[in-house]
Amino acid sequence: MEFKKLKTTKVLKSKLKIRDIAEYTDYLEEVHTLFGNDLPWFRGQSNISYKLIPSITRSTSWKYSPDDEYELISDFIHKGRLLLPQIARITNHWEWMQLGQHYGLPTRLLDWTESALVALFFAIESEAESPCVWCLNPHMLNELSTNHRLIFFTDSLTREPLDEENILKYEMASKNLPDYPLAFLPNRFDRRMFNQKACFTAHGRKKCGFEELQKSSESPFLIRLDIEPNNIEYIRFQMRTLGISTVDIYPDLDGLSKDIKVFKNMMSQ
């Protein structure tokens, strides 16, 4: 399996569009070879034209404002305390930002997963014109953005001084927000986050921080695997046979309802 480099960003992409799980696995082996001992993170997207930027930065007029961010997250905290049973387990602002991100609140966070199959599910879950799965080397990203080749933790009970020193700069309404993204592992206090093997990048002042860092790096830390749109239904079927279904990704009544509908539609074809 071969890759080619995008001229404008130096990002590697799959030379061929992936047609089934076997080809996906073959490309993943190549990704692991390129990343060495660093385990990749993954992100599925329904369109290759979508940039790797957080939802809050997608407005053309966006500019980081600590006051605006504080107001947004604070409003979510004040109004959200009584709505979810896991609120009692939330111990810091990081976890409120993560919860908000998972429920559609615009934040500086971008969702990733440690599971290549979960990312593939998201890439082809809905109507997809040109689906893809992004592969990220989080260790290399953090080396470029913080000079530390490791992944940081935000859990207040387990993080160490080096975690504290670096994540403090990216916290809610930070006055000293760096320019480039930081990769971190969260406390997966929410069932969805746990099932989806959620991890995040916290983004800085530069909207296209990934692209700028990749241009400056001699080695790839971002790789894009393109999926053949005409094979989406077949790949969905393969995913189902491997035991990856909607209720596994969304472990609640909404997910169960969607899963039953998906299965009925699949059996009627």
TrEMBL record:
Pfam families noted in UniProt: FRG
SMART domains to which the protein is assigned, alphabetical: FRG
Boundaries of every FRG domain copy: 36-134
Protein name: FRG domain-containing protein
